[in-house]
């Protein structure tokens, strides 16, 4: 007897994505040629399914057109690997060896027996080895690796410190490691306290959380007369084709405005900022405008920026959507 679950509605599929940590989805059509390695899939499902842990489902795209469209399924058979409701990987027109390899990796990931290899195999999990100043929200992943760093741009930064790329560095900030850094791995503003950061993405992103790390030195540790500040007021803008000017950004309504206070920063100097998820569903670029800092200095400091959410397909290939997702 097969352990696969036949999906009869988008609501049923959405519920399974929420209740089961791992979901493997097999998309097929009524055309017999589209069934591919269905027998292998069902055999693996019978062996590897675990209640509320690993679930195998079958979806007939002729009957479930809403799900087909939501996940942009254009070729069958297609296999999608979900973890915590998020698409990790998909394989289309898979051969039996490809399917076995994918499912084996899924099971190892679910049981925690090969976390490191699963991380290197999936673009969505490569960030597991990356330092973060705050925990990930459940069901979301670090999508900082989706940034097009070569096209990112930072305005009004002090060239004697780090540039835009240090903000996305996966290493632990030197300020938390003790001692002085051989190179300044942080950003400071230059002529005043404002910074303008333009971040384009390789794929269409759903953004859930912004994590900003800022570790200004203590006054007695700073070589300058004036220690830099943490950001206080931040404006976010989405889907701009290029960076904004400071005057332009000040006059423009942001996608979200943020006010930070001392209580928002944790022991690692990181502010974990939840975003209005409904406004950050189809993001191709993000502008972070640091309007002012929390103090009297004329400099603001940023050590790291991490972006948390979901990454879809590369933009030229279209985007994967998740069924039944609510706003937060």
Automatic annotation (TrEMBL):
CDD domains attached to this UniProt entry: TRX_family (cd02947)
Record keyword Ribonucleoprotein present: no
Record family assignment: Belongs to the thioredoxin family.
Keyword list, A-Z: Disulfide bond
Domain PITH: from-to ranges: 132-327
Gene3D superfamilies: Glutaredoxin, PITH domain
Superkingdom per UniProt: Eukaryota
PROSITE patterns recorded: PITH
Pfam family, one: PITH
Annotated source species: Schizothecium vesticola
Protein name: PITH domain-containing protein
GO CC, any one term: cytoplasm
Record keyword Flavoprotein present: no
């Amino acid at each position: 007897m097969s352990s696969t679950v036949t999906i009869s509605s988008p609501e049923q599929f959405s519920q399974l994505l929420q209740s089961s940590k791992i979901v493997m989805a097999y998309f097929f059509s009524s055309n017999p040629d589209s069934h591919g390695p269905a027998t292998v899939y069902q055999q693996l499902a019978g062996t590897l399914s675990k209640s509320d842990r690993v679930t195998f489902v079958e979806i007939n795209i002729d009957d479930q057109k809403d799900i087909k469209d939501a996940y942009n399924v254009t070729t069958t058979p297609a296999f999608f690997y979900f973890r915590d409701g998020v698409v990790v990987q998909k394989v289309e027109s898979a051969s039996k060896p490809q399917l076995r390899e994918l499912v084996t990796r899924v099971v190892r990931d679910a049981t925690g027996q090969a976390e490191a290899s699963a991380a290197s195999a999936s673009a969505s999990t490569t960030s597991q080895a990356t330092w973060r100043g705050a925990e990930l929200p459940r069901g979301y992943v670090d999508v900082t690796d989706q940034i097009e760093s070569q096209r990112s741009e930072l305005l009004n930064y002090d060239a004697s410190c780090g540039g835009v790329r240090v903000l996305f560095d996966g290493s632990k900030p030197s300020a938390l490691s003790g001692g002085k850094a051989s190179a300044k791995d942080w950003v400071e503003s230059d002529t005043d306290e404002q910074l303008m950061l333009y971040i384009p993405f390789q794929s269409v992103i759903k953004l859930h959380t912004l994590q900003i790390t800022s570790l200004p030195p203590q006054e007695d540790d700073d070589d300058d007369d004036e220690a830099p500040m943490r950001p206080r007021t931040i404006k976010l803008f989405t889907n701009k084709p290029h960076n904004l000017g400071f005057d332009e950004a000040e006059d423009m309504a942001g996608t979200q405005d943020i006010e930070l206070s001392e209580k928002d920063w944790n022991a690692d100097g990181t502010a974990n900022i939840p975003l209005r998820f409904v406004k950050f569903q189809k993001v191709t670029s993000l502008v972070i405008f640091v309007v002012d800092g929390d103090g009297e200095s004329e400099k603001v400091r940023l050590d790291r920026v991490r972006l948390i959410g979901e990454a879809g397909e590369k933009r030229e290939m279209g985007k994967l959507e998740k069924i039944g997702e609510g706003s937060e």
